[in-house]
Amino acid sequence: xxxxxxxxxxxxxxILIIRSNPCDPDSRVQKIAxxxxxxxxxxxxxxxxxxxxxxxxxxLTPQTxxxxxxxxxxxxxxxxxxxxxxxxxxxxxxxxxxxxANRKTIDAIHACDLDTALPALCIAKLxxxxxxxxxxxxxxxxxxxxxxxxPLIKSIETFVINHSDECIICAQSRxxxxxxxxxxxxxxxxxxxxxxxxxxPFALLDSKAKRVxxxxxxxxxxxxxxxxxxxxxxxxxxxxxxxxxxxxxxxxVESYAARADNISFYGKICYEDTLALESACDIxxxxxxxxxxxxxxxxxxKFYESxxxxxxxxMVKGTGMSEIVEAMGIGAxxxxxxxxxxxxxxxxxxxxxxxxxxxxxxxxxxxxxWGIMEQRLWEIYARFFPNLRKSLIAVIxxxxxxxxxxxxxxxxxxxxxxFAICTITSGQHTxxxxxxxxxxxxxxxxxxxxxxxxxxSLESISYKLLYHLSPLLKTLEPDLLCIxxxxxxxxxxxxxxxxxxxPIAHIEAGLRTHNIHSPFPEEFNRQAIALIATxxxxxxxxxxxxxxxxxxAQSSIFVxxxxxxxxxxTTIASDFTHPLLEWLGTDKCLLLTxxxxxxxxxxxxxIFSAINALLESIPNLKIIYPIHPNPAIQASxxxxxxxxxRLRIVPPLDVIAxxxxxxxxxxxxxxxxxxxxxxPALHKPVLVLRxxxxxxxxxxxxxxxxxxxxxxxxxxxxxxxxxxxxxxxxMASKKNPYGNGTSSKQITSILENLLGxxxxxxx
Length: 763
Fold this sequence. Notes:
The protein is an alpha/beta fold. 43% of the residues lie in helices and 17% in strands. The chain folds into 4 domains: 14-188, Glycogen Phosphorylase B (Rossmann fold); 212-367, Glycogen Phosphorylase B (Rossmann fold, 3-Layer(aba) Sandwich), CATH 3.40.50.2000; 390-561, 3-Layer(aba) Sandwich (Rossmann fold), CATH 3.40.50.2000; 572-732, Glycogen Phosphorylase B (Rossmann fold). It contains 30 helices and 27 strands. The protein has an 8-stranded mixed beta sheet, sandwiched between helices. The radius of gyration is 35 Å and the shape is elongated. Residues 1-8 have low confidence and may be disordered. It is an enzyme of class 5 (isomerase). This is UDP-N-acetylglucosamine 2-epimerase (Non-hydrolyzing). Keywords: Isomerase.
């Protein structure tokens, strides 16, 4: 299989997020990782598991099995200051080693704290990788740092901020905190939760209906008034506390829960359960000690969760976000004391109302929703990886007609700022048949599966394409798979996409003969594709009606004309020259194409018999036959076609030569599908060497006529057209029902509306 021709034009960015806690859970890391994964980034997390001496590998959460997390097991404690110095140094050495070992598979580093930003900065500069420093907490204001070391630590963090490619802070107030640093680029991404589609019911333990229910979910540590909260609740039977989390005070919390019937401890819970627990309670607490400098600038999860859930929150005056709660009147802001805290609980429980709930939720939606923050995150990464926000469309073709009809669409899609385009050729037709078309349209396939083999069977084509295309699609993970028509390449590619839940756009959908054996296997292929395609781009209202009759959803069908007409507009030239045109001179020209599988053998011999008769009967007629490279067709032509001065059997022509020859011809005699659409656009009568056609619009419009493979019928139809000017003029002047050459633009515009925001199409 061919590898990409040019680096990673549509390869996902591989992003490593590093955090110096176990991320088990860490809601902000989870949101960042999930949001980046939505934009086709490959995301991995590296974390520090201080409760284990063994490294571990897992998925970030059960809900995100595609996001992996590596945990470095280094035993250490939380909140013990310099006693953690040796484990911290070991952690940083291990992070450096990890980054160096994986440097070739990491495209960007997202460091979430100073502990991880230092080694990240070293590798980022050495290996020229973007470093995004997401300042979850400003180090000297957050951790137990000896006063003598604070200037040094602050200067180190300032250096990291100034040399990172992007800095992220979680609130406007942190601009004051990180001064005097001067980041190259700075973004504010609030730590708001993502609104879930559904918040499940949560069964509160030992809950009494008349008691005010208080929720605390977070780190169980000092400086959050946790001991005071436990003492207050245990002493007041009007209140009950529902607490979850982990940390150094866990034993204390478990002790209170064991002896107080109004305190329930749930241990460490996932974020989904966090929102469910808080939703089941009346009040959320976000009690931060303002004597801790970092708390003055904090952006507590609980503040955002209270807005999302519409619940009142209790905060301490002077801590981060408390001014918003106070100004908006959406919670209680207190000077901390047990009396003030108790009064806040009682007052909030009595004064809460549906109007206040709606006010909180409106504030979340308008200013702090994760959807808004997610857009900011995507914009950051789009600066480093322009294709990250583009939807990846994989376009696959394998035959000459597919290439001709998809070429103008590929060029149009490539011109859109919304898409990254990966072109794949299956090689169902030989490279010699496809290359001239691709060269004419300046298209270089990203991958060539090279499945062609002499005298290949349908089974062989199907097997090889399934075998080679499936792993490629798994690697690429395109947001949309674009296929054309009814070839075996189209059908098997659609099947691969269906198996991998990739949305499928079917170009030239809805053609039908309603005879599954004619044409074979094309009629089966296109009917089968219709069952699994996501979007159906159909040429005419007649083909749309076929799909509607098969119960395809009307909202997924788009009438756009045929891209074959688009191709003609770029290839026909009034000054085109070619030896075949010189050979024709002023004689009448019949252009023959005959290659369809159902015509091989007896039918092909009958067609060639008619050709011999025409050449013997019409002296000023010359016939050009671009012959298919299929050995069976070549052998039949050699056996049945008589050597004639006025017959030229030539190899397949490049698309420009063929279209211009089509323009010069007087009559087209063909069993091809696309020519039935192209020739009428050039006002050329088409005689179809088949018993039926899926291009019924051409029959109804009078641009086509079925003549089958009977030699007498073929002879009479050609002879009459060449000798009856009125009949010829009537057929040549009919309006082409297959569009005006804007199909590719229409399809691209529709796809921009469907996928323009980035990400995958709707299944």
